[in-house]
Design goal:
The chain has 311 residues and is α/β, with parallel strands linked by helices. It folds into two domains: 209 residues, P-loop containing nucleotide triphosphate hydrolases (Rossmann fold, 3-Layer(aba) Sandwich); 94 residues, Alpha-Beta Plaits. It is 39% helix and 26% strand. The chain contains eleven helices and 15 strands. Strands 7-8-9-3-10-11 form a six-stranded mixed beta sheet, sandwiched between helices. The longest helix has 21 residues. It is globular, with a radius of gyration of 23 Å. The C terminus is likely disordered.
Amino acid sequence: MRNLTKKFGDFTAVNNVSFDIREGEIFGFLGPNGSGKTTVIRMLIGLITPTSGSGKVLGYDIVKESEKIRLNVGYMSQKFSLYEELTVEENLDFYAGVYLVPKDVLRQRKKEILEMADLVGREDYITSTLSGGWKQRLALGCAIIHNPRFLFLDEPTGGVDPVARRQFWDLIYRLSEKGVTIMVTTHYMDEAEHCNTIGFIHYGNLLALDTPGNLKRQKMRGHIVEIKCDRLMDSLELLKTVPFVIDAAVYGAGLHTVVEDAGRYLGDIRRLLEGAGINVHSAKHVKPSLEDVFVFLVEEKSRDKVSTEIK
């Protein structure tokens, strides 16, 4: 992708985004709902036309050769694009027809997919009766029935339980090991740890692009202090007023506070909160998570925007 932009009237959904995805890697595209992830995918597979910029998928131009792209990639949308009234096997047969799978290889492909998705013995189940996890696996099977070299997964684990999420990622790993290139969008930061490369997008702008390890090592300014305490929101508001606190946010059942030097300010944070009558259970220096990095980048972008507007 080079300088890819999509506008809907006066609204810019994707703003001048550029990146490469290497063959065989798992590329994670992260961002909150409405950040532009799905719009990027829909441009890459030719479902919508970019306002400006360019891109190629498997060597095919996203504007001029979109039909060739759609026949050679797999796409699993946010909502499982299955026909609920059809059986498992009928859904596979339908998508095999859409992707022009030759009849002489279809039987073998269905056998491989049913085994991969652990759906053997469920071929005659009506799709609407399947659990979320089974539907998820079936939707993936339909997306790869034609053995694509590139697979687009748009928030594929939304709405399924943690066990189903883990099982689904096991399937993604297996496909990647076979050489399939995978672009997966998610807003689950723990899933991003499984990706080779991560792109952070926020309100259509690409904030960062690197490996999970490099993002955590290079994109954070300062140290993270993890705090477990009572009156979480009162503590958060108090910490945000302190000059040496770069940023603070709720993290799980506690707080993550960004400071320039954890060794120097750890004691000051505890004394500050306890002085306000807040019971502090623990305060310690921890390594940043991808969620910390993303929050920091978003806040930094907001600060830069405010600074520019003031100027």
